Structure formats: C-alpha cells, structure tokens
Amino acid sequence: MKKKVLTTLLCVSLAATLLAGCGGKSDTPASADTAPATEDAAPATEDAAPATDASVATGGDYKFEIIVKSYQSSYWQAAVTGVNQKAEELGVTVNCTGPNAESDIADQVNMLNNAINNQPNGIGLAACDQEACLDSLQTAMDKGIPVVCFDSGIPSAPEGSVYATIATDNYAAGATAAENLYPALKDKIASATAPVRIGEVNQEATSESITSRGLGFIDKIIELAKADGKAVAVIGNEYYVNNCSEKGDEASADIIIEVAVPAQTTVELCATEASVILNKADTIGMFGSNQVAAEGILTANENLDVLGTDPATSILAAGFDAGSVIKGAITSGKMFGAVTQSPLAMGQTTVEVLTKIANGESVSDVPTQGYWYDSTNMKDASIAPNLYD
C-alpha cells in the first residue's frame, strides 16, 4: 500500500450549498430510521444506522475530491448526500463535482484532471466512460493520489491506480430484474403462436454499470427462456448484441430482445427510443437499466398508455433505481417493478474508504446489493430506506 498522502491543511466545513445541481443537500446526517444498507451489503432496516466502520479514525484534516457522473437525477443527489454525511462524521473535507449529463464524458475528464491538480488526499470517481479516464488515472498514480471508484468500476485502469471499487454487482442486478419480470411473462410466451418482443432501453453503451446491467438482463432472459425450450435473438445496439451470451437468430427466435440506446443520455431521447419498441404489436415487456431510461419508458407511455401489470392486456415494464416518477408509476400500476441500489451508502462508503487509505490502512472492493421492489414490498423495512426521491 502506498504511504499516506501528505495532508493539505484545510479547516473549512463543507458548505451547505455544495453544487446547486444537487437539488439541495441536507446539512445533517439522515436519521437512523432512514439509513441504507451498510457497507457489507446487508439489507437496511428501519432502525439501522448509516453505513459506518468504527475502526476508521476521525480527524486528519484530509481533503478529498469526489466526481459523480452527473447531477441529472436524484440518484446522484442521494450519493452526494451520503458523501456529505460521512465527511461530517469523520471530520474530513470534500469537494463534489460532476458534469451536467452522463454523456458529457469530456467534461468529466476535465474535472478529474482539475481534481488531480488540486493535490487532494484522494479522489472518489464514478466514471461516465470506462476508457476515457485511463490517462488521468495514470497521472494520479504518478502523483501519488489514490483513486476509489464508486457506482462503476474501470476494469482496464492502470494497475495500482484504483485502490478499491464500491459498486453494485451490476450484472447480477440486471439479472434480478429479468428474474422477476420473466415469470410474469412466462405464460404469454408459452401460449404465443408467433415471436414476442422484450425491449431494453440503456441510456448509453460506455459505462460499466449500465452495460453490465443491460447484459445481465439479456443473458438471464436467454437462460430462463432456453430452460423453457424457447429460442432468443438479440437485436439493436451493436455493443449489447456483440457482448451478450448468445445473440441468436432473429428468423427462428421465439423471443426477440430489442436493445435501444439514444444518442444522448436524456429522458426525452430515451422516450423516443422506447416509443419505437412500445409501438410494436408483438412487444410484451420492457426494461430500463437506470433511472433515466426507466423514466424514458414511462414518458413514452404517456401518449401510448400500453403499460400495466396484467400481461394479458398490457406491456410489463421493469425499471432500475428509484425516484418519485418510478415509485409513483409502480404505485399506480403503470410499472411492474424495479431494482434499486443504495446510492447513499455508496457515497458514505466512498469517503470511508478514502479516509482509510489516507490513514495508511489497506482496503479492498466493497460490493453492494440490488433489491427488487414492486407494489407489494415498497414499504418493507429492507426496501423502503433505499427508495430515494
């Protein structure tokens, strides 16, 4: 482990107005009855305390730069809130930045380079693109600045540049969505006399988190369908077609998985892509692999009104993440269900791990879980704390 980076003497507290794009962070830690899953990925309970590790020494006057993917969604607002909470608890200083949208990859790289130039004790990075940050990571390592990735890993990062990754097992989380959606569609698939279609909207094909979720969903549908004697073909976006477990033959398929990726990561453009699939008469299911994509599917449905929870009369849609739009759609019966993460816990754990590194302690990757929720379990103690607005 590299020796501890020299600390910069800064005594200012984190300002309450940290980046207006956050939607306004809370200056006080969340109450104990609304905390997320702890860093060991166990489900949160209503009376659980925020993720913490009593072995982490407080103080130290450390300064950390935290770079999120964007301030476009409440997911990242929740992550920044977690960062702020843990920084206050441990007595460290954090500076959070991030581009306006997750497609603004060049902007994020510039922010990472600026963060490196500030010579912090460590950097927390949720990378928009797996390849775009590689040179910057090498620079950070050359300058002795440790980097911790959160939400998304960077598999091809220069060896030794990333000390730990804190992220949901995104491939497994995508599979979780498929494991819950497929059984609801199974009878309709079995009785179909012609091929049926399941659509998937991914906001992009560059970040580890989105691509892994999308592929996890596709591969699990293929696995479940093959167990039922059904053939599957994957069409649409080339990345997902070329990297799934088996792309199949559209001409002989019983199930067609159509994957769409918009030109930019906006709800409106995701809605445009979703509308094309929802308008097809053979579509029976949809999956949106993050908050933006799921909200895009719901936006498309505002004009089409084809989504519901009865597979005999409607298209069943599964989403990812939370937010008021998705939660409202599940409550009203417009969305079948979704998989949620705990961005608050990810933010907290990122600061905790960076502090351990600055203290000279060894660290390792921290996996976090994804949880399926629908109208039947949204208020359960193991689910409700992770359903951010």
Averaged pLDDT, please? 86
CATH homologous superfamily label of the largest domain: Response regulator
Tally of helical segments: 10
Order of strands across the widest beta sheet? 7-8-6-9-10-11-13
Strand content: 15-25%
* CATH topology-level fold name of the largest domain: Rossmann fold
Cα separation of the termini: 38 Å
Q: Outline of this structure?
A:
With about 400 residues, this protein is α/β, with parallel strands linked by helices. About 35% of the residues lie in helices and about 15% in strands.
What's the helix and strand layout?
Blueprint: E1 63-67, H1 74-90, E2 93-97, H2 105-117, E3 122-125, H3 134-142, E4 147-150, E5 162-168, H4 170-191, E6 196-201, H5 208-227, E7 232-236, H6 238-243, E8 255-260, H7 267-278, E9 283-288, H8 291-304, E10 316-320, H9 324-332, E11 337-340, H10 343-358, E12 366-368, E13 371-373
Parallel strand pairs: 1-2, 1-3, 3-4, 4-5, 5-12, 6-8, 6-9, 7-8, 9-10, 10-11
Antiparallel strand pairs: 11-13
Helix pairs in contact: 1-10, 4-5, 7-8
Give an overview in words.
The protein folds into 2 domains: 20-168 and 344-369, Response regulator (Rossmann fold, 3-Layer(aba) Sandwich); 170-320, 3-Layer(aba) Sandwich (Rossmann fold). 35% of the residues lie in helices and 16% in strands. The protein has 10 helices and 13 strands. The chain has helices spanning 74-90, 105-117, 134-142, 170-191, 208-227, 238-243, 267-278, 291-304, 324-332, 343-358; strands spanning 63-67, 93-97, 122-125, 147-150, 162-168, 196-201, 232-236, 255-260, 283-288, 316-320, 337-340, 366-368, 371-373. The strands form 2 sheets. It has a 7-stranded mixed β-sheet with strand order 7-8-6-9-10-11-13, with helices on both faces. It has a 6-stranded parallel β-sheet with strand order 2-1-3-4-5-12, with helices on both faces. Strand 10 (316-320), helix 9 and strand 11 (337-340) form a beta-alpha-beta unit. Helix 1 packs parallel to helix 10, helix 4 runs parallel beside helix 5 and helix 7 (267-278) crosses helix 8 (291-304). It starts with 62 loop residues before the first strand and ends in a 16-residue tail after the last strand.
